[in-house]
Amino acid sequence: MSKTAVTTAETVILQPLSLPAPIASIPSRSSDPDVLASFSEHSVHDTESALPPETAVSTSQRWNDPPRNKYRVFSCFFTFIVYGMNDGAPGAMVPLFGEYYHLPHSIISLIFLSPMIGCVLASFTSNRLHAVAGRRGVAATATGAYMLAYIGLSQHPPFGVVVCLLVLTGFGSGLMNGSWNSWFGGLVQGSTVLGFLHGFWGLGATLAPILVSRIVVKVEDWWIFYCKCQRRKGIAGLSCLACIGVTSSFWDDVGTGFRRQPVTPLPNAQGTIKILKNRVTLTLSAFMVLYVGSEVTIGGWLLTFLMNVRKGSPAASSLATSGFWIGVTVGRFSLGWITGYVGEKIMVSLYLIIAIVLELVFWLGQKFAVSAVMAALIGVSIGMIMPSGIRMMTKLLPPEKHLVSVGFATAFAVSGSSIFPFAAGALAQVYGVQVLQPVALALFGSQLLLWLFISRGKLKV
Asked: Where is this region: Disordered (predicted)?
């Protein structure tokens, strides 16, 4: 018996065991830096607990998921081509309006200022329209405003009526900016898809001066651009196609989702004013106003500058103006993924520094060829600034504030396309068209300073 006990004691010999690697239990609410430091990243071995549950789903949509989004995205692309043509046409129309109506630059500049009234109106009505009729109603209203304005312009009315009709185009642009920018900005890879959206806007802005110059050379009637005449489909026909496409793509979006969102049930005007107290909304709105102002001021007065100051021919100056818009388009199509990869904060600062240097070369170079090349390169450098500003806003703000804040900021930014070109025209009447370059430099410098303030990351929601 004792032998058996001894044998048992010999076979059951405890060996020293090495302790297993500790399994970290990550504190969920502790903010103590000493506690957080004790849980180093490499000590976490329970990787399954860090994974989301099987029932978890992403709340962010993609451009192709659900499948109906593909139709929505492409219809918005086409609508933004029309929107770009709308913005690119006034600059080409400046000398034509001056010759047809026999008016000075200071009065013709009202074609840049009048859309601002429509944009401001859109910024205060967008939220209510979304709640009542959804994006379907926004699409129909925005493109419908375009069609009414173009039909009126095709009748070549007195200049005062032209100014009033352009208020409708500003209203449509403000609605589209707010709705589609907030929707695209909330998609996965928002920087890339926003770059494409605004790239198609640049494509439309590129086509407009070319079409206007060809129409004037062959027909000599500027209003042909806006209507269908002699088997030509003007921009009124394109806006009709855009209305059908984008309205049908958002046909099931009738405002139910917006009414269910957990937002404060205030009247539209009060809700918008409350959102305006947000520093993120105010600061980025100011930045977008400056950007759109610089973009449309350059694009709107470049043709006149090249003809009067650089002594270019109308055909060559029109091509150089289109080169600027081509640069904007190329920048938005090609630089979106780089901007998203590196980050908007760094890339926008870099873009603005490059734009300032190129603008200086444009100003100091006295030859037409140098100015044409610099204009195209400036377009490339500033192409992604607007999409990046929108993307930054969607990152800083909670989703329930995207519609009102992004909608107001982008709609209000369109007013920049009215104020600054008008101011440049007023200055050009007194000092000559050469004031375009110092105005553009001042706008780029102001954007850079404001973006550096935004990049500090101290803006509070």
From this structure: 44-63
275 neighbors 409 (Cβ within 8 angstroms):
no
User: Cα separation of 319 and 326, whole Å?
Assistant: 10
248-258 per-position pLDDT tens digit:
999 888 766 55
Whole-number Å distance between alpha carbons of 131 and 456: 35
- For 200, the domain range is 68-247+266-455
Q: Please check whether residue 27 lies inside any domain of the structure.
A: no
pTM above 0.85, yes or no: no
Helices (H), 2-109: 2-11, 33-37, 68-101, 105-108
Question: How crowded is residue 362: how many other Cβ atoms within 10 Å of its Cβ?
Answer: 23
Backbone angles phi, psi at 182, to 5 degrees: -70, -35
pLDDT at 123: 78
- Which residue has tokens 């219809």? 75
Number of domains in the chain: 1
Alpha-carbon distance 418 to 300, whole Å?
10
At residue 15, the 3 state secondary structure works out as coil
Cα distance between residue 74 and residue 94, in whole Å: 32
CB 225 within 8 A of CB 211: yes
Backbone angles phi, psi at 102, to 5 degrees: 55, 55
Domain presence at residue 254: no
Q: Nearest 5°: CA angle at 118, between 117 and 123? A: 100
Q: How many residues does the chain have?
A: 461
With beta carbons less than 8 A apart as the criterion, state whether 433 and 304 touch: yes
In a domain, 25, yes or no: no
Rounded to whole angstroms, how far apart are CA atoms 297 and 411?
17
